[in-house]
Amino acid sequence: MKLLSLAFAALFLAAGLSAADMAMTPGLAVGAKAADFTLKDAAGDDVALSALLQKGKVALVFYRSADWCPFCKKQLQELQKNLKEIEATGVRIVGISYDAPATSAAAAAKLGITFPLLSDTGSKVIDAYGIRNAEAKGKSAGVPHAVVFIVDQQGVIRVKLAREAYRDRPETAEIIAGVMSIK
Hints:
globular, 18% strand, 36% helix, Glutaredoxin
């Protein structure tokens, strides 16, 4: 456990982010109550955060679009590649974007994604988490900053992983270390 904490700290520092930097990143803070939601998955079924939390911790992976964002596609594929290792820590991965359910379904099929991709087509959940990218215009209006929130079973945000640039994303090792840091 101590080794994982050190690995997490090293990754945190390697990313060039201090605790103060993380506090300045957009969105809800660590320790805040996660905004509950019900969104459609790629099959069009309703998925509620409260229902997911009944089964354990949840990593909410906010991404721009699995349709047109190459960095998002890469991130989703990386998560899928390491899904068994991530889930072995007791956390479920859930992707959230402004993509419509049909777009998420097509992307999941094309990219081989088996974890839920949820559609926040009106960006209401993105706004509730405070991570809408206000600079995004045109087809990207309504996209979130790429942030990962790890939520415990009580619905409290315990870990927040983010980068300043949209091209950079939290990596699998950081997610695992973040989950392992939750008591």
